Amino acid sequence: MRRALTVTAVAGAAWVARRALRHRIARSPLWPLPALENPVSGYSPRRPLRALITSRTQPADGVLRLTLRSPELPAWTPGAHVDITLPSGLVRQYSLCGDPAEAGAYTIAIRLVEDGRGGSREAHERLVEGAELELRPPRNRFELVPAPSYVFVAGGIGITPILPMLRAATAAGADWTLLYGGRSRASMPFLPELARYGDRVTIAPQDEAGLPDLSPLAATGPGTLIYCCGPDPLMRAVTEAAPDPAAVHLERFAPAAPGTAEPFTVELHRSGRTIEVAADESTLTAVRRALPGTPYSCEQGFCGTCQHRVLSGEVAHHDELLTDQEREDSMLLCVSRAKTDRLVLDL
Fold it and tell me: Which residue of 117, 160, 199, 201 is most buried, as measured by CB atoms within 10 A?
């Protein structure tokens, strides 16, 4: 009798666990990975990896190309990017521009931004051959969707996620063209690699030809997908020139602006303080006025350093990281705001 009761109890517990897992998975629109703490690949998106810098070259003026190697680097697909932790602790995101077929090796390219926030300068000055880097497994929000034909448009360092797409489209036998613009030929990386594709590629340096001519996009036929990565003005122009905006896929260097923002109030529950967040500032900026030690890094909604628990209030999420489950009770302070007029944070 006791054995029968034990078997029944174990079976009941297993049924409850299976049901809970099915419910958890069903809540994620990207079933099954984001809702699981450990993705099927075995790599947690938050679990750091370590890799050695085995090559450092300069493929164009102001551009640094690094090859990272480690047997633990997971596979990736064209359009993917990785989060790199710089020696100072800053986290920055870089598109993978190597060959996905090369196991255990990642290639990234970093343009020096003179008036940026310091990450690119640190990378150029401190990332040397032989150094070890911490990074997170690749994420891809710019997947190459199978199609019979493509038009690729890249601006400057925006060529990085496009480069492996060209290899994949060629291998798949798809029709494609690339329009690649930049300030000058000297500033445009990977021109030798692109030369092998012949007249499929149009190089448009601004100092020679002005802004890229996007008028051919109007003739894009049904079934052709348009992939664009580059500065915001270029991506807006591509979207406007395309006959079908739904066929346009964009990769941004920063999250899209959330539109008209409204001021709101944040209560810092553990600190017993209440602060006002102005329409023209981030939640992070306002919180750091009261709590200067609040950690942050990328300020673009990618790295997760400024994730904090939300005790009450509705959040307008603008990040590129949190799962549906995480968004139920947390937010990234750097990009997300309140939908209501008040949020209560566990800070």
Answer: 160
